[in-house]
Amino acid sequence: MLIISFAKYFLLPPVFNIVLIVLAFISRAFIQRFWWRYMTMIIIWLSLISLYLLCTPVVSSYLMSLLESGYSVYASGEEKPEAMVILGAGRHRNAQEFGGKDIPSAFELERMTYAAYLNKQLNLPILVTGGKLLGSDQPPEAKIMADFLQENYGVEVRWQEDKSRNTWENALYTQQMLAKEDVRTVVLVTHAWHMKRSVASFKRAGLNVLPAPTRFISGRSKSVMWYHWLPTPKSFTNATYALHEFVGLLWYRWKYF
Description:
Number of helices: 9
Structural class: alpha/beta
Largest sheet: 5 strands, parallel
Radius of gyration: 21 Å
Helix content: 40-55%
Strand content: 5-15%
Distance between the termini: 19 Å
Mean pLDDT: 93
Oligomer: single chain
Order of helices and strands: HHHHEEEHEHEHEHEH
Shape: elongated
Strand order of the largest sheet: 5-4-1-6-7
């Protein structure tokens, strides 16, 4: 897992762009051939231009739209769900304002909030997912989610899948847990841009999935204005999330699918 995390760190911006630029400058000092010096300048400019583009609302929204396409707000249909699954999204560690304990991350809170809202209509038994950090004495993420839902939303959790470390394991262990109670069709709650990888994983694991995406990012603006080409920190963050998902999809297709 550490090797995978390390690889992801260097495959994503801005580290990837910075490494390319540094290597290009270093190589120019040792390789004096004209064609190589020309290539290094192309690499440097492409790295800088790509960083700029990733910071613009136009490009970040487009990348997100590729991930969010095909999914819309959940609406009840002919298929009747038997349970709701809320995917974990990390934790905020050692929160001082909560007595130093771990609490759900901001992303996790968004998923939990939507699930609590949605379950007022559906009234389904809920499963939460997420394992324990290596070397930590804090409880598994699933328990943190279950406690937070109960204490702050008044929502009871029936199942806690507390062994998983990634989305694929979320799906695999969830299926094993629900199969014991003959549950096959689930409402799956996660972020809209995370839904493609999540749905693919849960279907591969053998569950029938009804997507319930939250926090759509693309499609908020119907037209492109000049100021959408101005770089913003939020756009760069969104673009990074999108690229992370694209890398994740490629990795999952090679390793799991």
